[in-house]
Amino acid sequence: MNKERISYKGDALSSLSRGEWKKALQSFQKHCDQEPTDLRSRLKKAELLERLGKKKEAIEEYRKVAESYGRDGFLLQAISVNKMILRIDPFAKDVNARLAQLYTEKSRESKHLRPLPHIPLFSDLSEQELRSMLDLVQSKSFPKDTFICREGEAGDSLMIICRGEVGIYKQSLEGGEIWIRSLGEGDCLGEFGFFLDRKRHASVKSLMECETIEITRNELDGIIKTHPRVKEVLEDLFEKRVLDNLLALSPLFSPLTVPERREVLKRFCVLNIPEETFVFKGGEPSHCLYMIQSGEVEIFIQSRRGKRVVLGRLGSGHLFGEIGVLLNTPRMAFVMTTQPSKLLELAKEDFDDLLRLFPKLQSVVKEISSKRLSRMNEILSQESVEKAKESMV
Question: Buried (b) or exposed (e) across 327-340, using 16+ Cβ within 10 A?
C-alpha cells in the first residue's frame, strides 16, 4: 500500500513536470484519497483544478485546505490559501471571517495545553481585529536570491513571511553592509518605515523561494482608527526590533549571535532623558554604561584652567561610559544630552556578568576603550600645544 501511495504522488509530480495537467490531477486525486492529511498535495490538486477551468471545484478544495490549516493553528498558510480563493472569487469575503473565528477559537483551546506558535502582530489580535486585518492583506511571492526591498527605498508597508526565509542586511556605522539576522515563517518586517519615515531601514533578500503577506500604512491606519489596540501591538514589536538592531550594529555587541543579543537586551534599562541634562559628571562613581537608542549626547572634560574641552558628540547606536566600568575607576568625563534622548542603561554588575558569559566581548570592549582613551589624550595634548603657543605670544 505504501508503495502505491508513493507511486501515485510520484506519477502526479512527473506528469506535472511534463505539463500533463489532467493526468497529474488524476494521480493527485488518488494520492489525496489515500492521504487526506497531505495538505501540500491537496493544494496542488486545487491549483490543477483551477488551471483546468474547474473553478467551483478548485474553490471547494481550497476552502477545505484553508479550514484544515486554520484548525491546526497554521494561520499564515491558511491566509495564503484564502488569497487564492479570493483571486478566483473576489466576493468570497466569508473565508476571512471564518478563518478569524477558527484561529481565535483554536488559540483559546490551546492556551492551557500547548500554545500555538506566536506570530508577531496577528497572534495578539482579537477575532474582530484579525478579521479586519485579513480583509486588507495582499499576498506576494519572490524567487530565491531576490531583493524584496533595499535600504533607503521608499516603503511603509508591513510584511509578514508566510513561507521561506529572508536575510536582513544593513549599512554599518563605519560603512559597508553587515548581516543582521535571518527571518523565517511568521516573522514581520517593514515596521521601521511604518513608524518612522516611510523608508526601508534595511535591505531584505530572499534566501529561498518566499511568500509574504503585505499591508500598507494607509490600510493599517484605517484599522487602527477602528481598533486602536493594534497600534500598541505594533509599537511593542517595533521597540523590540529597534533594540536588537542597535545591538547588532554596535561595535561591542555585533559579534554576538541573535540568542546572545536577546540575553543582553534583558539586562538593559530604558531611560528617557530631557535635553541639556547631565547623564553623569566627571569624578562620579562608574556604576553603569550606556547605549544611545535615540537622541544625542556631548562628551567633554574640564581642563585644569576650568575650560570645557569637547571630546565629541555621539548619536543613535553609540556606546559610552564603558571606560570607568571596565577599569573600575571614577568617571573621567562629563556627558550631557544635547536633545531629548532615550538611553539604554546597563549596570556594572550586569556588564561584568555578560563579560563572563560571553568572553569574546572582553577584547572588543578593551579595544574600544583604548581608542577612546587615545583620542582623549590626543585632544589634551593639542590643548597643551595651544597653551604653549598662547604663552609665547
Answer: eeeebbbbbbbeee
Kindly report the CATH class assigned to 2-117. Answer: mainly alpha
Q: Is the pLDDT of residue 105 over 80?
A: no
Distance CA 393, CA 289 (A): 43
The answer to whether 335 and 320 are in contact (CB under 8 A) is yes
Architecture of domain 138-249: Sandwich (2.60)
Report if pTM > 0.85.
Answer: no
pLDDT tens readout for residues 90-101: 888 788 888 888
Per-residue pLDDT at 390? 41
Contacts of 211 (CB under 8 A, 6+ apart): 80, 139, 140, 141, 142, 161, 162, 163, 164
Residue 162 buriedness (CB in 10 A; 0-12 / 13-18 / 19+) = buried
> Domain 263-392, what fold?
Jelly Rolls (2.60.120)
pLDDT of residue 175 exceeding 70: no
